[in-house]
Design a protein that fits this description.
By secondary structure, this protein is α/β, with parallel strands linked by helices. The chain has 2 domains: 170 residues, Rossmann fold, CATH 3.40.50; 221 residues, Glycogen Phosphorylase B (Rossmann fold, 3-Layer(aba) Sandwich), CATH 3.40.50.2000. It has 12 helices and 16 strands. The strands form 4 sheets. It has a 6-stranded parallel sheet with strand order 2-1-3-4-5-8, with helices on both faces. A 6-stranded parallel sheet has the order 11-10-9-12-13-14, sandwiched between helices. β10, α7 and β11 form a beta-alpha-beta unit. The longest helix has 18 residues. The protein is globular.
Length: 430
């Protein structure tokens, strides 16, 4: 019997969070050897192609799955990894996979996209809950209400598993002397907080990742102190080019000029970095903790990856990352939901009527100071968090769950069996 024909439409070869998710999904399907897997490679915003390398055997397996358009026949299973408003039902059974939404309500385009599919897989319980609770009035041309727009397609949670072969603890004395490691060694401070993520649309302090507010709060917390930690930013706002780097440096400088006194150091790591170097960054002895003041996450993949360094994590107490950042082991920042700033609104993605998280600044400042002065206590929790995430949120666990979901929901190929026909002997002529 032929294997089910599975086609995945996704940004397989891009430097992006959705690209990482796509590679995980395709690799899990290929490794299972249960399906005939092909890929329609897509763009992801302005992020560049070229993540996968032909000379890497694991990458080559994924690249070999890419189909040239157009699609020649209908897939048994169609999997589309993107934002829900782009979902299209193509296969005999169509699955949409998305990180989903970072706010307290999703757009009606997201609901309509989900309803075009047979099944939706969300990265977190936060996304699933927002999809299920969001309801819109359906208006006619005269503006009168005619029913509602709500989720009708079933949604299941499929977390983003960390690849334990790529992200793992490396003792300081075992860290290889790569170019990145040598660069990090130039940091004069022995204690650095790390932020990883794109600097997204929005005014200073209103961008979703809250990079601007993080910088300002860090500077104000440690200004004029005799001993100061550093803040390392692994970020960019668009393509990994000199213009983007210069733009980010200008934004950092503008924030610094708004804070008086002797200020702590901020270091920028700009551009694309592969998994190996990211793991070296996480494990560098001068990096002591990861911090995110994010207003909302569909999942928060870098936070999960960082846990495998066995170092502590500071993050806001809202949205997708709470699935794996247990309050017992992670430092969760309180706050409140506030309306999305108009500068961060994106048509069809983030609407002005939605809210996201505003962290408590006073709490952040006290926490940062305590981390710097009493790190050992938090270090223990970091090790416990790393173990929990390793056992419950691995790539292997995610792969098992994915295959189980497909086998449970996708249509089965029917093998036609003809009945056995008895041989009839004709009577002999006398």
């Amino acid at each position: 019997m032929n294997k089910p024909f599975v086609v995945v439409s996704c940004p397989l070869d891009t430097y992006s969070g959705y690209g990482s998710r796509a590679r995980d999904i395709v690799r899990a399907l290929v490794n299972s050897e249960k399906y005939d897997v092909k890929v329609l490679s897509q763009r992801w915003g302005s992020t560049p192609f070229g993540f996968l390398k032909e000379d890497n055997p694991e990458d080559k397996k994924l690249l070999d799955c890419i189909l040239p358009p157009p699609l020649q026949r209908q897939p048994d299973v169609w999997i589309q990894i993107t934002v829900p408003n782009e979902f299209q039902k193509i296969g005999k059974f169509s699955i949409g996979i998305t990180a989903g939404i970072e706010t307290d309500v999703c757009t009606h385009q997201f609901l309509e996209g989900c309803n075009r599919m047979d099944l939706v897989l969300a990265s977190s319980n936060h996304t699933k809950n927002i999809f299920e609770k969001t309801v819109y009035d359906k208006k006619n041309k005269e503006g009168k209400t005619e029913g509602t727009v709500k989720l009708e397609t079933p949604v299941e949670v499929l977390f983003e598993g960390v690849d334990l072969e790529k992200y793992f603890h490396i003792p300081a004395n075992k860290l290889p002397k790569t170019e990145l490691v040598k660069d990090l060694s130039e940091i004069k401070e022995q204690f650095s907080f790390l932020f990883v993520g794109h600097w997204l649309k929005g005014a200073i302090g209103e961008d979703r990742k809250n990079v601007g507010l993080l910088i300002k709060t860090f500077l104000e917390t440690f200004r004029n102190k005799s001993k100061q930690p550093a803040l390392v930013l692994k970020t960019m706002s668009g393509p990994a080019c000199l213009m983007d780097r210069d733009d980010i440096l200008k934004k950092i400088d503008a924030i610094r000029k708004g804070v008086t006194g002797k200020l702590p150091s901020i270091y920028l790591l700009h551009g694309e970095v592969d998994d190996e170097d990211m793991n070296h960054l996480y494990n560098h002895p001068k990096i002591k903790a990861m911090i995110s003041l994010t207003k909302g996450e569909g999942f928060g993949r870098p936070l999960l990856e960082f846990t495998q360094s066995k170092k502590p994590v500071i993050a806001t107490n809202f949205s997708g990352h709470l699935d794996f950042l247990d309050k017992e082991f992670a430092s969760l920042i309180p706050g409140e939901l506030k309306p999305v700033h108009e500068s961060a609104v994106q048509e069809g993605l983030i609407i002005k009527e939605s809210k996201w998280f505003a962290p408590d600044i006073d709490f952040i400042q006290l926490l940062l100071k305590d981390y710097f002065s009493s790190y050992k206590a938090y270090e223990v929790k970091g090790k416990q968090l790393g173990y929990r995430c390793k056992t419950k949120f691995s790539f292997e666990k995610m792969s098992e769950e994915l295959i189980s979901i497909i086998d449970k929901n996708a249509p089965k190929k029917v093998e036609i069996k003809l009945p056995n026909i008895k041989k009839i002997s004709l009577p002999k002529k006398s």
